[in-house]
Amino acid sequence: MLRPVGAVVLGQYADRHGRRAALSLIILLMVVGSAIIAFAPTYAMIGSAAPALIVLARLIQGFSVGGEMGGATSYLIEMAPPHRRGLYASWQFAGQAAATLAGSLFAFLLTHLMAPETIADWGWRIPFVFGLLIGPVGLYLRTQVPESLVFAKAGQSGHAPLSALLSTHRRTLLWAFGLTIQLTATTYLVVIYMPTYAVRMLGIPAGDAFVASSIASLLYLALNPLSGRLSDTVGRINQLSVASLALLLAAYPAYLLLTGHPTLGTLTAVQGGMAALLAMFSGPSASLTAEIFPPAIRSTGISIGYNLAVAIFGGFAPYFVAQFDTGAHMTPAVYLIACAIPTLAVLIWMRAARDR
Asked: Whole domain around residue 290: which residue ranges?
C-alpha cells in the first residue's frame, strides 16, 4: 500500500540529500519495522492493538522498500566506471535473489526443526529477530560509504525532483514503468510464486518445489552479474529486446510442459530455464532504467516507475493466477505473455528514439 508513497518521498529524499543519506534512512526504517514485528505483544496481552501494530510495521517496511531500488541503483551506476555500469547495477537484482534464497532456506529450516504449533506460537518471530542482528551491520556500512561524486557534481535543480520529473521527463518515466512490467511479472511468477503454484495447483511435493526453487534462485543469482557485464558489450536495448522476446516465446511451451509432466525434473528444468532468461533481462534492466534519467531526478524516476509497475503487475500476479485458473493451470503463461507485450513495445519505442 505505501510502497509507491515511499517511492515518491524517499526517491526525492535521495535526489535532494544524497544517495548515502537515503540508503541509511531506508535501512533504519526497515529495522524499526522488523523490531515492531519481532517484539509486538500478543493479542492476549493488548487485544486489537496487537494486529494494528503488525499492520503499522508492514506499512513502515513497505514505505522503506519503495525507496530502495531508486537509491541503491542510482548509487551503483554512479560509482561504476562508464564501461561497467551494467555489471555494477546488476548486483541490485543479484542481491534480491540472494535475499529470496536466504528467506526460503530460513523458512525451510524453521518448518523442519520446529513443530507447527511452536511456529504459530512464537517461532514466526525468529526471522525478524535475525533481521535485527543484520540491520546494524547494514546501517554501519551505508553510513560509511562515500557519497556518489556524480550526485555531488550534479547538485540540485531549481525544481523539486518530482516536479521536474513530471514536467520534463514524462516519457522517460513511462519507459521506466514499461521496462519493469515484464520484469516484475516474471520475477513474481517464476522466482517467488512458483513453489506455491507447484504445490497447490500441480500437486508437486513441497520438498521438491523447494529444491527446484533453490536451484533456480542460485542460477538467477549467478547469471545476473554475467548478464549485466554482457550488456556493457552488446548494448542494453539489444540484450533486453532479445531476452524479452525469448521470455514471451518460452512462457507457453514451458508451462505446457510443466502441467503435462509435474515432476521434480520438469519443474527444475522449467523454473531454471525461465530464471536464466529472466537474468538475461534483469541484468541490464537496472542500469538502463537508471541511465535514462539525469542525476538530479534519477532516484525519483527509478523509484516511481519501478514501484508503480511492481505494485500493479507484480502484486496482482498471484491473484490473477489463482482467480482465473480454469483447471488447465496455464494462467501464469497467459499473464507472462500479456506483460511481455507492453515491455517489448517500450523497447521498440526506445530503440526508435535512440536511432533518430
From this structure: 3-355
Any residues with CB less than 8 A from the CB of 114 and at least 6 apart, and which?
123
Rounded to 5°, the CA angle 236-97-235 comes to 5
Per-residue pLDDT reduced to its tens digit, 142-180: 888 888 888 877 765 556 889 889 999 999 999 999 999
pLDDT in tens, 286-327: 999 999 999 999 999 999 999 999 999 998 898 888 888 888
Do the beta carbons of residue 151 and residue 18 sit within 8 Å? yes
CB-based contacts of 179, cutoff 8 Å, min separation 6:
240, 285, 288, 289, 305, 343, 346, 347
User: Looking at this protein, which amino acid is placed at residue 252?
Assistant: Y
274 near 254, Cβ under 8 Å? yes
**290's grid cell:** 537508471
Task: Report whether 15 contacts 296 (CB < 8 A).
Answer: yes
Band of the pLDDT at 267, cuts 50, 70, 90? very high
Predicted TM-score (pTM) of this structure? 0.91
